[in-house]
Amino acid sequence: MQSYFSQNYFSQNYDVAIVGGGMVGAALALSLSETSLRIVVIDQHSLKPDLVSENAPYSPRVSALTEASVQLFKRLGVWDTMISQRVCPYRHMRVWDGEGTGEIAFDAGSVGYPQLGYIVENPVIRESLLKGLENSSVDLLEASGELSFRQLETGYEVVAENGQAFHCRLLVGADGAGSAVRKWAGIPQSQKDCLHHAIVTTVETEKHHQDTAWQVFLDTGPLAFLPVPDQNGRHYCSIVWSLLPERADEVMSLDEEAFCKALGNAFEHRLGNIIRTDQRYRFPLKHRHARHYYREGVVLVGDACHTIHPLAGQGVNLGLQDVEALSRELTRACKRGDDIAGEHILGRYQRHRKGANMTMLAAMDGFQHLFHADDLTVRWLRNTGLKLANDSHLIKECIIKQAMGISDIQ
To answer: Does the keyword field hold 4Fe-4S (predicted)?
Structure first.
């Protein structure tokens, strides 16, 4: 039965302490919950599940889940909980150059799948995972304020601001891009400013999204329209609009009517007029990558380890792949009676994930430069490339396979 700690906390020893109860941290805890490992999850926010109701306002933050991520959630037993709230499958994808004529279209049916992926609000994912943890052996600690850490002979001590303390053999940083665990462990990271800010919100569109994820590359940055479920016969999309900071200033200052008009023009009115918009949010875009994924019994997953531009929607999927790789290594070590914090265990995790993550970071960096280039020759090449790729089933099949995170296309 689930244990929650807030004030009356008794110091305990754990095998694994996961700092961060977001999507990645909760998924890792649930992945390890069937082992004999004693696990605690620590977060500053509530860890009691609060499922999203059907008519609740849309969250401005969504994820494009790949087939590989969906399969993980099915194995963890939480996919049905997500479906009971709100998920939106997309069967098609349309990508085009807003400054040219190049366009490429992807369709799930061409590779024998019913959908390319699912757009799911981040709170739906997190609350479903927390619901899955309710009846597990994992303990959840809601710790207000900053955490402090101390290395011991046999592991680590984690102390909350109110004095709550406990010991663990393996300390996991799943606490986001500003990871306190990574900073305390002295794990360096490379960081590159993408020179863009993202504006995110949910908009009501005149026409149905056609079960399609749309993305247009503009000279100011990419703009994505991601499908979310209709409500009361009205049509909605979640948008991610990447803009240069000065242009983002202008767009954020627009009133609702002017914003909807500017957004519709940028999107070429492919879904008709933009009728209304929810509150807009803005954040800077950065590529970050930890130079090491572990150090002396401390290991990083998800955004604590790497962040990328959202143009391909791969951020949370990379984090979930981290979860699969790390949980696999820890489960094997547990079954063998091996040291879960051993360098040979964490080193295998790093070898499995670092190359794949670096490849994705490099690809996103290349895409950003390719579509932000003003050179006429580069523009001609990218438009020609899009047209050639659109005419090749083999190329599109390979792209779909990579984007879906599947090993075989049936």
So the answer is: no
